[in-house]
Sequence to fold (215 residues):
Amino acid sequence: MATIGLIGAGHIGSQIARLAVAQGYDVVISNSRGPETLSDLVRELGPKARAGTVLDAAKAGDIVVVTIPLKNIGAVPVAPLAGKVVVDTNNYYPQRDGRIPELDNESTTTSELLQAHLPASRVVKAFNHIYAAELTTHGQPAGSTNRRALVIAGNDAEAKKAVARLLDQFGFDAVDAGPLKEGWRIQRDTPGYGPRRNAEELTRDLAAARRYADQ
Ligand SMILES: NC(=O)c1ccc[n+]([C@@H]2O[C@H](COP(=O)([O-])OP(=O)(O)OC[C@H]3O[C@@H](n4cnc5c(N)ncnc54)[C@H](OP(=O)(O)O)[C@@H]3O)[C@@H](O)[C@H]2O)c1
Fold:
């Protein structure tokens, strides 16, 4: 079974770790303060999980999830993530991240910023529009009526397939928004950002999304 590396072990990172361990993955979690600060979470997660440095998580993960404040993505190690599927959960909140002009003028998107930082990685946007707590409460088996869906976006079809498979194991359908540059359709203040949606509703929400300048 594959290993999932987590860069960030806060609200979203800890929840993804719980889902991954429940599905039999090995998990390496990391944060900015060091592995010793993650002992409670590792104890809770059990023998499939260990804490490491950010570098450990990046090296160990077959799939690596970056789930830290957007302003810190420059600290994500580049070389160990080359060739890997990197899942990006991040959103832009200027009050937390400071102003990022190329996001304010919508000439790029959050996940394209991470892709630019990790040019040899296969970045897939996912998990950015669901509240952390709902990750472990809204999942349902494949084929359930009205199953909740989550958006993926990415430039690499195989990487998207891998993340769609992960979502399915975690209890969610996947709706493909297209390449990373379409990720704005699920950024904050769009119709699909936050509420529980099935695949059909979420597809409609993506189509109804408007650029900030047009809102
Ligand atoms: N909360 C939600 O419901 C939610 C939903 C969807 C998407 N998101 C997005 O997902 C991302 C993570 O959100 P969150 O709510 O999980 O954040 P959070 O609870 O504040 O946790 C952030 C985590 O990132 C770690 N971190 C910060 N800087 C780091 C660095 N340079 N290297 C390694 N780890 C670092 C922190 O470690 P330390 O504590 O050691 O600093 C912490 O473990 C954000 O971009 C957020 O907008 C959040």
